[in-house]
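Hi L.,

You mentioned the student needs an example of a multi-chain input paired with its predicted structure. This one should do, with 541 residues in total across all chains.
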Amino acid sequence: MEKILEVKNLRKTFYKNRSPFPAVEDVSFHLMKGECLGLVGESGCGKSTAARLIAGLLEADRGSVGLEGEEILGQKGKKKRDVYTKLQMVFQTPQDSFDPRRTLGDGIMESMRNRGMKKDRARERMYRLLEQVELDRSFGDRYPYEVSGGECQRAAIARALAVDPLLVICDEATSALDVTVQAQIVELLKRLQRERKLSLLFICHDLALVQHMCQRVLVMYQGKIIEQGTADEVIQRPREAYTRTLVDSVL
Amino acid sequence: MREKKTIVRKQKAPGKGIKLKLILWGSLALLILLTAAFAPYITPHDPYEQDLGRALWAPCREYLLGTDRYGRDMLSRVIMGARTSVFSAVLLVLITTVTGSVAGTVCGYHGGKLDTFLMRVSDVFLAFPGMVFAIAAASVLKGGLFGAVAALALISWPKYARIVRSQVMAIKNAPYMEAARLAGSGTVKIIFRHMLPNIAGPVVTTAVLDMGTMMMEIAGLSFLGLGAAPPAAEWGSMMSNGRSMLQTSPWVILAPGCAIFLTVMIFNLLGDTVRDLLDPRQRKKEELPL
Ligand SMILES: Nc1ncnc2c1ncn2[C@@H]1O[C@H](COP(=O)(O)OP(=O)(O)O)[C@@H](O)[C@H]1O
Ligand SMILES: [Mg+2]
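Structure written out for the whole complex:
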């Protein structure tokens, strides 16, 4: 198995009223091809910040991120756009992740159109992607506020798949949904991961869900990775006191 | 298993009511603009021809809105005034929206030192009594109507810059902006495709609503002799000329007054309609029964 993502010494400090606040401190980990890696931790511990740093949506202070062995931090212009044909994200609040003035279909087709695909072909492909996430074609013409959270998240997954990515970062992709819908989205992600041999970085604060989804888990606390191991290991025999409280609070 | 589709409803193409309103107010506004454009060809009389023999006639069949103290036909002058008032207001609004939006977008999107600098400059303008500044600027510029427009543009752009800046800052970190980045859209594309359309509502509404205020401000400067110079027909200066005759010959002030009132109202209603049309979330709130 080869590594698809290798993160080393990632660091980001925010300044709140001039006092430094290290949101991500010296985060290092790797992700194997086809693996689903969990990243857990309480709200505000820096999971989203880490995700955005890796995706280059936020500039890191230090560190390196290798995608298939190539450094992707600090890339600009065309190089960065190329990165986004391999790496995609699914966000926590599906409805906010689509432009309220554009249809879901437009959102799904944006990456294809940006890469010069003709309108008709992009549309055909958009319909196929909707099918893959179990939505019917009519959703392509709907606006984000006209669909439910679960449906919107399916469309967001379709959008992420539009470039045939190798790696998808799911930043609490199921947290804003209610439990039954959550389960459906998780099953969908699992199926897509299997079928497409996707690698997933599955960010979540629900340990049970992570255990269900992931082979390996990282535990983050106050900007640092404090523990990692297989999901069962971490949950059944947590080494760190913090992990134990996290486990106790949900199980 | 799929979740139930209870809240799903097919997108209602812009509601019928809104379309009707848009057509109604839009065509009235267009009518005003056309009147302004073709004013010299549709005036029943020469708006500048003086005849003291028929000074201050009340409205009659020949002079539908009466005459002023020089015997000039009020209706012709109101029509002619549309050109001056409406076009200078339109020009002013265009200049301020464009400058303000560019400054606001740059500030809001880019941030940093440039933002700080431009915002301090706009603070200076906002802290100073606008009209006083405009009067000073207009008298320095001495450019008649264009001088007045320039002076008012100088004091009005900061408001638009502020609106646009705060809107840009509010949505520039929205997940859909990041999603657009992930889709490989560049900054320019993101600004024009995802940012500006989403902030156009408040800007356009403010702009159309400001038409009236701007018209009044131009009129104010004209009244002080810093805008349209007599004998040019201009609603504001016509009103101030008629002030002293409010009790004896009210039509001299009422004719241009009503013209301003109607124009302002039509542009306000058009502004509201445009806003509803540009902001689908707004539309949704109105159409979904609670
Ligand atoms: N742009 C920002 N500016 C300042 N502070 C931020 C910014 N983004 C996140 N933070 C702070 O960084 C910390 C980590 O946030 P986040 O990564 O969103 O946590 P999580 O996703 O784990 O809930 C929080 O305390 C948050 O307030
Ligand atoms: Mg988060």
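You could point out the following to them. The interface with chain A takes residues 1-3, 5-11, 174-176, 178-186, 189, 193-194, 197-198, 280-281, 284 of chain B (CB under 8 Å). The pocket of magnesium ion (ligand 2) is lined by residues A 47-48, 171-172 (CB under 6 Å).

Best wishes,
N.
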